Amino acid sequence: MRYLDGTALILMVVMIALLITPESYHQIVDRGAVTGRFHQLISRLAAAALLPFALSLGIALFIRSDRIFSFAAGLANGCAFAVFASGFWYGFQYLHRRQTGQMERAIPARH
Predict the structure, then answer these.
(1) For position 111, what pLDDT does the model report?
(2) To the nearest 10°, the Cα dihedral for 59, 65, 66, 67?
(3) Cα angle vertex 94, ends 79, 56, to 5°?
(4) Using H for helix, E for strand and C for coil, what is the string for 73-100?
(5) 3-state SS class at 31
(6) 111 is a domain residue
(7) Is 79 within a domain?
(8) Within-domain flag for 109
(9) What gap in Å lies between CA 48 and CA 27, rounded to an integer?
(10) Verdict on whether the full-model pTM lies above 0.85
(11) What's the number of domains the chain is made of?
């Protein structure tokens, strides 16, 4: 269980790194200017940060459920939560983009 706790912690660190990265990029590359490329980077990194977050929470739920109920119940709870959260975070966004026709439309750069 300690390895799983460590894995969940590493996933949270990855998530935080993905959320912090745009600030450095904004200051170093774009010199503080708000550009379309910057908005696109923020959107992609925020979306990417949701996966390690969902996995980390699923692992934490597994560990707690395993201790309270059983291994099978813990595994079912953890996996169900990770799939459920990812489905809502990624699935609804995909469906929305598909319905509105915004699947791969690039954000125009602002000058």
Answers:
(1) 45
(2) 120
(3) 30
(4) HHHHHHHHHHHHHHHHHHHHHHHHHHHH
(5) coil
(6) no
(7) yes
(8) no
(9) 21
(10) no
(11) 1
- Dihedral of CA atoms 65, 66, 72, 77 in degrees, nearest 10, equals 20
Q: Is 59 helix (H, G, I), strand (E, B) or coil?
A: helix
Tell me the residue range of the domain where 46 lies: 2-100
Structure tokens at 105: 């439309």
CB count within 10 Å of CB 96 equals 10
Our separate counts of H helices and E strands in the chain read 4, 0
Q: Decide if 105 is inside a domain.
A: no
Query: CB 104: neighbour CB atoms within 10 A?
Result: 5
Q: Are 81 and 57 in contact (CB under 8 A)?
A: yes
pLDDT tens-digit readout, 42-100: 889 999 999 999 999 999 999 999 999 999 999 999 999 999 999 998 988 888 888 88
